[in-house]
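seq:
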Amino acid sequence: MIVGKNKLADRKQRDLLTLLRSIAWARTEESCLLALGTLRDSYLYKDNQQVRAYVEQRWLAIKEKWCRAYVPEAFHVSVTTNNGFETMNKNLKAFYLKISASVLLPISLLKMLWIKVMVHV
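struct:
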C-alpha cells in the first residue's frame, strides 16, 4: 500500500525511518556521518527525488537539533514529552523516589539538585 506525500510503500517508509533513526541515535559525530552516508547510499535516497528533497530540507538541514551526537555531553535526559518542564519534573521525581527509599535527603540538597536541573533547561 502506498501512502504519504513521498508515495512510499509501507515497507519503504519503515526502511527510511530505520535509516533516519540510525542518524538520530548516533552518539558521536563520526557515527552520525557514517549513518548519513548509509542513508545517502540507500536505494530509497538515490532512486527517489522526493525522498531526497524531503530528507535534505526537512531533516538533515537541522540534524544538530535531533541527532544525539550534537547534544551537549552533560545533558542526558531522554525527552518523552513535548513539555521540557514535565520531563525534568518526571526525572527529578524518579531520582528522588529512588534515593528516598533508602536515605532521606535534606531539603537543601533537593533544592540544589532542582537548581542544577533547571540550569540545563
